[in-house]
Specification:
By secondary structure, this protein is α+β, with helices and mostly antiparallel strands. The chain has 18 helices and 24 strands. 39% of the residues lie in helices and 22% in strands.
């Protein structure tokens, strides 16, 4: 699949999910096309499908686009599709989004360059190979690989292009450093200083400002330069590792998808505080749902070198994948949904989709590891895990069967205010404001991340390879949800109510942050009627 097709598919996915679909303006046109009406601008698109949609209702329709789209008889490029989307959304919102063209161009260019690269030779660390193989990214985001910054820096630090680098280290006066969590194993800074790692891209960005050069000039910080092992960025760009024994989540003043990827101090505090607060839940999940692993954020730090620098220097240390059993292969769940999968994943998917009974058995096992712990944590404990495809790692045994499941990124975990008032009251106000969420907003996150993004994304990717299996794949989702301990929001979904789906196109249109994203209703084909 070409970068042009990947980019067009992402735009059409967003348009259908957020604008034309909810308005009932998407209709099948034979077995291999759909018509998408742009009502406000009075235009119509005809989009080719990767596979027939089957007998699904309009409410649950999730087209799988091929990347070919026409207006009238004219094939459209992604830029021409965006022009039509721009006209429609300008008519709806009253504002254009000129910034989006540049972001999509960067995303498209990076995907194209990554697709041109030969498949890298396997390394001793297949998990990191898989992290760096995620070329298409978020399928329902208009610019999934967009990054701010110079083209040279974007390329130099792109995981998709196989980036490797040492961390840049500063020695910072001890009284200027804030720390939380476990003590470091060693700190080779000069006496009276503490060692602070930076992403080399962040070091370059801060060096172009005023605060870091001033701190280096007056001795509040000492530039120690790059050192340590060669690190590889994961798909998040700012989280890095030398192997799978430990990860470092670094601040990066770069806009990636919807957010500037810095680690404000209250978010560093939240991640490490939650690691301690959720320790009993971590143990309960491992016993109640064998194979569940919750990665802990063990230590955090930052330094205050002037206005704004504490947010731009935050560091979170995360434990590695040592809890996986010997012989288990760690696979980022997002790798299973890639249109151009890594050879490891390609071999697995080819084997699964050559035998539908094997595929369905594999999928049921996967769901048994994924759904129960996340739903239990929300319903019983008021803990909101953002279990989208990029936040979950599945452990496969030597036969390729799911046997373990890893939940990561505690910084994004929320606590339901109505269920955890005492825990939230004990936190500093900025941490409490970041971690606490009303139950409705908490369900938005669970419903979207777990069901719309993760489950919906994987069902679609598997059905791309075996279209006839789609009804049975959704039936397995229904059956696993029906076995879970009931709670109001889950019962509503099983009865046919929609789940929330995040509006990434409209969020980027407004240049808004993730926390300000809206949601649209997304109907999943969970009832028997919706699958026939």
């Amino acid at each position: 699949m070409s970068a042009e097709a990947v980019t067009i598919i992402a735009l059409l996915n967003c348009l259908v999910r957020e604008v034309s679909g909810p308005a009932g303006l998407v209709t099948p046109d034979g077995a291999d096309r759909v018509t998408i009406r742009l009502e406000k601008s009075d235009r119509t698109l005809s989009a080719g499908l990767l596979r027939p949609m089957g007998n699904v209702s309009r409410e649950t329709m999730q087209p799988r686009f091929s990347g070919q789209v026409e207006s009238g008889e004219k094939p459209l490029s992604w830029r021409e599709v965006l022009e039509l989307v721009d006209a429609e959304l300008t008519a709806i919102t009253g504002a254009t989004a000129e910034h989006l063209t540049g972001q999509i161009a960067i995303s498209n260019g990076l995907i194209a360059e990554a697709l041109r690269r030969p498949v890298p030779e396997p390394s001793p660390h297949p998990y990191l190979d898989l992290e760096q193989s995620l070329l298409a990214g978020h399928r329902y985001h208009p610019a999934p690989k967009a990054r701010s910054g110079s083209v040279g820096e974007i390329r130099r630090y792109a995981p998709e292009l196989g980036a490797r680098f040492q961390l840049h280290h500063l020695a910072v006066r001890s009284e200027l450093v804030r720390e939380i969590g476990a003590e470091p194993d060693h700190d080779q800074a000069p006496s009276g200083y503490r060692l602070l790692p930076l992403h080399p891209w962040q070091y370059a960005i801060l060096s172009r400002g005023r605060e870091l050069p001033a701190a280096l000039g007056d001795g509040r910080a000492i530039d120690l330069g790059p050192s340590g092992p060669m690190m590889r960025p994961t798909s998040s760009v700012r989280t890095v590792a030398a192997d799978d024994t430990g990860f470092v989540k670094l601040s990066l003043s770069v806009l990636i998808t919807n957010c500037l990827r810095i680690n404000p101090w209250h978010e560093v505090q939240a991640a490490v505080t939650l690691a301690g607060l959720l320790e009993s839940l971590r143990r309960e999940l491992a016993v109640r749902f064998p194979g569940t692993v919750l990665l802990r954020e063990t230590r955090g730090m930052t330094a205050d070198l002037g206005p704004g620098t504490a947010d731009q220097l935050g560091v979170i240390h995360r434990e590695g994948l040592g809890a996986l059993a010997p012989g288990v292969l760690a696979v980022p769940s997002a790798a299973l949904a890639e249109p151009v999968p890594h050879p490891i994943v390609q071999r697995l998917l080819s084997r699964l989709t050559s035998d539908r009974s094997l595929l369905l058995d594999w999928w049921r096992r996967y769901l048994r590891h994924l759904l129960p712990p996340v739903l239990h944590a929300f319903a019983r404990h008021g803990v909101v895990f953002e279990a989208h495809l990029q936040n979950v790692v599945v452990g496969l045994d030597p036969q390729g069967l799911p046997v373990q499941l890893v939940l990561r990124d505690l910084e994004g975990v929320k606590l339901v205010r109505e269920q955890r008032p005492d825990d939230l009251a004990a936190m500093p106000e900025p941490v409490r404001a970041h971690v606490g969420t009303p139950r409705g907003r908490g369900w938005d996150r669970v419903g979207y991340c777990l069901l719309a993004n993760h489950v919906g994304g994987l069902v679609s990717a598997l059905a791309d390879r075996d279209p006839g299996a789609e009804p049975a794949l959704w039936a397995a989702v229904h059956d696993q949800l029906a076995e879970a301990e009931p709670f109001a929001e889950l019962e509503a979904v099983l009865a046919g109510e929609p789940v929330p789906a995040k509006t990434n196109l409209l969020t980027r249109w407004r240049s808004a942050a993730d926390r300000d994203s809206g949601y649209v209703p997304l109907f999943l084909p969970l009832t028997a009627d919706s699958r026939t």
